[in-house]
């Protein structure tokens, strides 16, 4: 398939809010328990409206329906929805800070069809064009193989604390885009 990412708009938010739990519950099930996924939906796995406002969040549609979404950020947050954020997310300096890859979710019926890879390439091209030289991200265990296949290296393994007291294992990864 030849996928074409387009910029997400605020009109896409209801469809994104439907896609994210579908993607998480199906595609993360080999790695996380139901209790971990349910607690993470919202605060960790949710829409970040700031990315949409910045024009750095993309969707891929098939026959008019969103089958995948993902983006990048010129701001500090490494992961998470915007729920509970009280202050503006500070902007990074492309000359010295790494950009972020953020919030990739593919519909389970469309997994392993190159949507994640296509979104990642679009993000990296936009990140380069914005003048950043490196990229950081926090991956789920489900996302780690996609980023590893695209040349990202693990810099840290850590647990994201969830509201129900459970830990959600995550992986910080980074890549130099070169110039
Ligand atoms: C992670 C995710 C976005 C990957 O999307 P995808 O469209 O299925 O990925 P792609 O088809 O583009 O995969 C590209 C490459 O990544 C690797 N890869 C992706 N998913 C993989 C998996 N489950 N197991 C092993 N390798 C995988 C493979 O090398 C793959 O190439 P191949 O299919 O030719 O072998 C998707 O699994 C997802 O939405 N997961 C649930 C939400 C989530 O955890 N998101 C990550 C947030 S960091």
Q: Mind explaining what this structure looks like?
A:
This protein is of the alpha+beta class and 179 residues long. It is 27% helix and 28% strand. It has five helices and seven strands. The chain has a seven-stranded mixed beta sheet with strand order 1-2-3-4-5-7-6. The protein is globular, with a radius of gyration of 15 Å. The structure holds coenzyme A (COA). Residues 23-24, 27-28, 68, 104-106, 111-117, 139-140, 142-143, 145-146, 149 line the site of coenzyme A (COA).
Largest sheet: 7 strands, mixed
Query: What is bound: which ligands?
Result: coenzyme A
Shape: globular
Report the structural category: alpha+beta
Strand content: 25-35%
CATH class: Alpha Beta
Our count of domains comes out at 1
Per CATH, the architecture is: 3-Layer(aba) Sandwich
Give the full name of the CATH homologous superfamily. Answer: Gcn5-related N-acetyltransferase (GNAT)
Please tally the helical runs, counting DSSP H or I stretches of 4 or more residues: 5
Total DSSP E strands = 7
């Amino acid at each position: 398939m030849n996928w074409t990412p387009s910029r997400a708009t605020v009109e896409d938010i209801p469809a994104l809010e439907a896609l994210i739990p579908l993607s998480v519950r199906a595609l993360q099930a080999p790695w996380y328990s139901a209790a971990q996924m349910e607690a993470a939906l919202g605060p960790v796995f949710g829409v970040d409206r700031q990315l949409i406002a910045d024009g750095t969040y993309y969707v891929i549609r098939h026959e008019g329906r969103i089958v995948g979404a993902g983006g990048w950020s010129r701001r500090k947050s490494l992961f998470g929805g915007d729920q509970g954020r009280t202050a503006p997310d500070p902007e990074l300096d492309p000359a010295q800070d790494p950009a972020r890859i953020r919030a990739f979710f593919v519909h389970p019926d469309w997994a392993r069809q190159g949507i994640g890879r296509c979104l990642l390439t679009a993000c990296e091209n936009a990140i380069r064009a914005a003048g950043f030289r490196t990229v950081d991200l926090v991956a789920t265990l489900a996302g780690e193989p996609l980023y590893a296949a695209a040349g990202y290296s693990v810099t840290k393994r850590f647990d994201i604390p969830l509201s129900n007291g459970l830990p959600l294992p995550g992986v910080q990864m980074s890549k130099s885009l070169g110039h």
